[in-house]
């Protein structure tokens, strides 16, 4: 008896040199034309279901050749009359395949399937703004400068900092209202801290008889601009400090709180006061800060700055610009070759302030271009602000959404900690200026092959073979 085959499975592999599609495998075909064509892109993992009336065109690879793999596309054609029974199963199986673990982790710069395919400290990301259409393993964590020693003053270290740290992409307001306000970060506060962020910028307002993290219109917080109560984020920070006894976190508060002792009450309720670095121990007139090791041993591992000068006396919260110089934020701080101070700050070259904060993010967050902003332009601005800040490297490098900032943080730490071009070149507890190989950190990994590892490819092909068998077995 003749069997009616209800699907056709095609696999295409993109060969980088020369650029062309190879037809990799094919199942038995069904009647023509098919009703649906499901494209499954292994790199990046994606599913799209579209009507098709024309066949996909491919070429068989030459014998004894192995293409340089970057993208595998699976096309599954469903025959007319079988969509309702097979389409849900196919989508379910294809979605499930996204969760398949890779048998080997890819290194920096390698093409990837998902975050799980990359080594620790790497994300699988694309950067369309830089013309990179293929997802690659990208750094999200700076090198921990404490790995080279923690016996220097706090102002001899640099820390990755996030602007509007609370404004997470896609987050719904705790009021139950969709947020209609700029969204600056991809990760939660805990995710940011786990990825090496040590400086957090938080906008705090009086709202609903509490302190909330919020954007504003006309200086007021509304349901559609309020993200969450500040206590929730402060408790995340408390849990992180409790679980990581050698870490130090700095909070910069854009302060719109007018309720009496409002900030003090929030920090008391969060359990963070036991980590508080007292304002009395902060150096005046540009002196060195206490040693990082001393701050850790004394458990004074939380620095908090406010934008309200009066609160230093009334609540013991340090007024930021008595201790920090800061460049212009937003578009005005991203002009190549220029590093002006923001209005509240002394000039960048004021050595009476021993901490330097460098902002580098646009006025309106743009996820698509952030990876470009945080690459070469950020490194270039690092040098520009160094020259404008009396030859001082920034202690806090503040960026908005997107990756790419770890390299800039490593460069600043290299110069601050050991006088080298990157923290990767510093020797542990060595004399200042004694460096290892000055090659750019990660260069070897970046120049490595972009090919998918054969175990990972085998895992994917085994899965699709199983998929084909399941579909054939379902045919009447």
TrEMBL record:
GO MF, any single term: phosphoric diester hydrolase activity
Cited SUPFAM superfamilies: PLC-like phosphodiesterases
Gene3D superfamilies: Phosphatidylinositol (PI) phosphodiesterase
Coiled-coil annotated spans: none
CDD domains hit by this protein: PI-PLCc_At5g67130_like
Pfam families attached to this UniProt entry: PI-PLC_cat
GO biological process, one term: lipid metabolic process
Name the UniProt record assigns to this protein: PI-PLC X domain-containing protein
Species of the source: Musa troglodytarum
